[in-house]
Hints:
CATH architecture of the largest domain: Distorted Sandwich
CATH class of the largest domain: Mainly Beta
Strand content: 35-45%
Amino acid sequence: MFVSKYFNQSEFMELNLILKKNDKPSLSHVSTSSSLLRHIAIGCAFAIGLATSQLSYAITDPVSPPAGEKFSYAWLKGYARALSEKAYISHKGELPKSIKGMSWDDYQQLQFKKDKALWRNDDSEFRAELFHLGLYFDTPVHISELKDGKTMPIEYSSKMFDYGKTGIDGKTLPEDLGYAGFRMQFHTDWKRDVIAFLGASYFRAVGKEMQYGLSARGLAVDTAMPRPEEFPMFTHFWLEQPKPGSDITTVYALLDSESVTGAYRFDIQPGDRLKVKVDAALYPRKAIERLGIAPLTSMYMIGENDKRTDWDWRPEIHDSDGLSVHMGNGEWIWRPLTNPRNLRFNAYADNNPQGFGLMQRDRKFDHYQDDGVFYDRRPSLWIEPEGNWGKGSVQLVEIPTLDETFDNIVAFWNPDKPVKPGEELLYSYKMYWGGVPPVEPERAKVVDTFTGIGGVIGQHRQYYSKRFVIDFAGGSLPMLADDAQVKPVITTSAGKVEITSARPQHAIDGYRAMFDVVPPDNSTDPINLRVYLEAGGQPLTETWIYQWTPPPQNERDLHNP
């Protein structure tokens, strides 16, 4: 079951578009920052319009336990709860002109010195480097090292940075300037990041491909509402000193915003599929209409199924190509992403979801032909809830974009239970970053979705229809006989379905489903589609779902010769 709302742009002007730079071929040094910054500017750039305090450069006082008490996650939760009972104070300040008005290229030159990396001289599998404030990263955060329960604030020093050819004299910057965020490297490759936290509550990680792509956030508040979205931010981080030889490092974070505070614990484990174990404790200051748990942010501009912006020479441009959901009842659904004309919102109702994520299933270079940003290497991100999350919905937001430098896809879990001030909300989940998620459907899954004009080749079209072609592979499909009675089960919320078929597709050891949808006359209301293959009354595949918006009547070209 799902509900949808389709906004006109005039109804939703405050779109959370993320200004970003094109990723570079490598993630080392400057290019790592460029790749990261491409996706996380939203929290900083958007927050410019929010009310700010009269702070100049100083960040808030360090947060640490009272003398004699050790730092712990329990203590951090208590602190976050107490903070929620106080009025919100903005953490935003005004940067010095020399770094506030700098260009994008100049900001890339503000590089943390490798010989200053945290844990560089320890017997550690990890190192940590800090991001400088500047450009639109103008909200300082506190970063502390955590050793044996004791916190040690990492004070800002311009001596930790190389300012390149910017002409900036670090000695002229305030001594209490602070940092914008941090990134980590693993012993397998000290030059390239495995995870980075920068901007609002944004962070990104990589799998074995060592390629950044989509982003995650700590929390989303009122996304895709007819009012500006609120962006909670991580104001304090505690980086726990890794145990010698351990492949797991732990980061704690304090989240703060006008509506909610939170305490977070991240257990980070690099590998072919980087895993992050997340524990989040949330303390609302006030009622929240739409709370987004485990929010993901990505980009989809052009793909096999949606070529609305088809002027680029590359056949596909996207960080993710679909939303995958493992429902509480065991059903798997696959929703190809789109680049709609207007903002589109869908909610897929569920009870205790087993998992969801934004996937980059298509990993063939020739489908993208991009040897600069390598969309074929972008990681998928799978969320695996722990415990019972109850009733709610996986919500998907698709925002129109004409440029790949804007992230336009958001997905998150939204609980049905109203969020009230004064309560404690506890969520735990695992995140898996990499090419292949840790779990996939046992039945065949969708590998391609194509769309085009409907009708019969060689025959004059009398009316407008849309053709949908879905390729399924895996599961039991390769073992079926050629004469197996496989049929597509198709449902539509409007219009008429015709010219249906399901036949073997030997090139993929799977099956291809095809059908046309004839939309109602003079209607541009979205049509919801649902398809799976069956034989003998038994499902053979995951469920493909889609939302198609018919063009206006005057744009329904029959393309007859």
